[in-house]
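Annex B.
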Amino acid sequence: MSDVCTIAAISLDSGISKEVLRKWEERYGFPVPERDASGHRVYAAHQTARLKLIKRLIDNGMRPSQLVPMSEEALQSLLHEQSIATSVPATESQVVNELMMLLESRDRTALESRLKQEVGHLGLEKFVLEVMCPLNGAVGTAWEQGKIGIRDEHVYSEMIQSLIREAISQVTKPDGRPRMLITTPSGELHTLGILMVNGLASLHGACCISLGPETPVQEIPVAAADYRADIVCLCFSAAFPKRRILPYLKELRSVVPQSMEIWIGGAGATGLDRSPRGIRLLLTLHDVIDAVRKYGRAKYSQRSRRPPNPLPSNAER
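DNA-binding transcriptional MerR regulator: predicted structure tokens.
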């Protein structure tokens, strides 16, 4: 039998864990296993290409139940459609490229000046969505390719955090709604995700209480009560082990009052087959904006439906 590989090899090549591959095989009938001469399970190597397409589409926010049954040709077509719909406009791409050149040249003063210029020109929301989000990805890619060092990544991270926090301070409403407690789980060190959520949610009327990264799960309900939060919001980066997410969320849901909503997002949460009951999955930053707006509209609608206070009687006048 030629051109076959083990589940470990196909997992490594596709970026999909062995546990998930086994679940898909049982649930959807793909990937399709064979048996080698020793009776061990192996997989035809050509299935890897289809799995890679599925992984890319999951990373773009689609669900495995939609993708795994599809043919390789259908997956390629879908990915092509998504790339057209989500491609970064040339002007935005140019801005990101120019910012990356400043970071790579280590011209810190010019980089900081240009970032401030873009925030002032675009405003906080457009800057986060059109510049910061793709720029974060470009910085990570440049580090992976050895174009910048970890020190350069840290310079960028500190600079962008300072800039966004300053912008947030100008739009924060202490009496805003919903009151959102924002953090990451223990072991999740990445903070740019919660910073972007903080900025966009604050801009759309929320009052955000950021705990920073790595809040122990038992501390979250205590903090939520202390700060009178309506919602607990957590971000998971792609670096966070996916196998830990569902057990963590189940534990968190069990200790946070059922009346309090839990929202999750980030690249690490993308592609989850399911989330525990009472957990809301927000796949994109646009979803965060929509959720905050809808929450505000729902609360306003509830207030408007309340009966008016009765007029005072003559004796009370």
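Confidence is low (pLDDT under 50) at residues 313-317. The longest strand covers residues 207-212. Further annotation is deferred to the next reporting cycle.
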